[in-house]
C-alpha cells in the first residue's frame, strides 16, 4: 500500500510541475486583467519547438530556449490582440489554441513521423539524503531540472504577487480598476503586456517540461488540455497564489490516480477523475466553498478616457 501511495504522490508531483508553471503565469495575467485562454497554445508550441530544437541541436538546453521563444511569440500575439487591439479575450484565446493544435500536428508529421530519433531531454536528479525520505522524498526530490524550476518559479511569483511588494500592488491595481490606475500614473498597457509575456515564458517552459522531461518526445496534442487546466487551477485557487499551487498539486494527484487506482482495487472511471478539477472550479466560483471574487477588470479592455 505504501508503495502505491508513493507512486501516486510521485506521479502527482510530476504531473503538477507543468501545470504549476503554466498557472503561475496565468495567475499574474488574470490578476492584471487579461484572461489568457491561449495558455494551451503557448504550451503546445513550446513543447513542439522544444522537441524540434533539442532534436536538431542534440541539446536539451537549446530545446528549452526554442520553447521559450515559441511561447513568447504566441504571448506577444495574444498581448497585441488583447491589450492593443482590444479584441475579445475568450475568442482570441480559443482561436490561438485551435491554430496551435493544427500547426504543431502538421509540423510533427513533417519532423518527427519518420525520423525515429528521440530528442535530448532531462533526466531526474535525486537530491542526496532528501530523496530517501519515505513517501515525500521521491515525490519532491527526484525531479528533473525543469521540475525543480517549476516549483521555484511558482514560489517566486507567489511572493512577488503579494500586496507587500510594489509589483504585486501594481498588478492588482491594473486588474481591479485600470482607469483609476492609469490616472494614478501606472503604465496599464505596459503592465498588461508584461503579464501576458510572462505567461508565455512560463507556459513555454511548461511545454518543454512535458516534451523534454516527461515524455522525451513530441506527439499530437501532447498537452491534452493542461493549458485549460491551468486556467481552472487559477479559478479554483480563487486568484490567490498559494491556493493555486495547492490546486495544481491536487489536480496532479487526481491525474496520477487514473493510473494507480487499479493497483489497489479501485476501478474508478477515468472520465470521473478527469472531471474532478472542473467540478472544484465550479464550486470555487459558485461560493459554495467560501467567497471568491475574480479581479474586477478581468477580460475588460483598457481604454484611456479624457
From TrEMBL:
Originating organism: Actinoplanes subglobosus
Entries under Pfam families matching the protein: BPD_transp_2 (PF02653)
Membrane topology, record value: Multi-pass membrane protein
Keywords: Cell membrane, Membrane, Transmembrane, Transmembrane helix
InterPro entries: ABC_transp_permease (IPR001851)
Major subcellular location class: membrane
Record's keyword annotation contains Transmembrane: yes
Transmembrane segments: 34-55, 61-83, 90-112, 145-162, 193-212, 218-237, 244-264, 270-289
Compartments where located: Cell membrane
Taxonomy, superkingdom: Bacteria
Name this polypeptide is given: ABC transporter permease
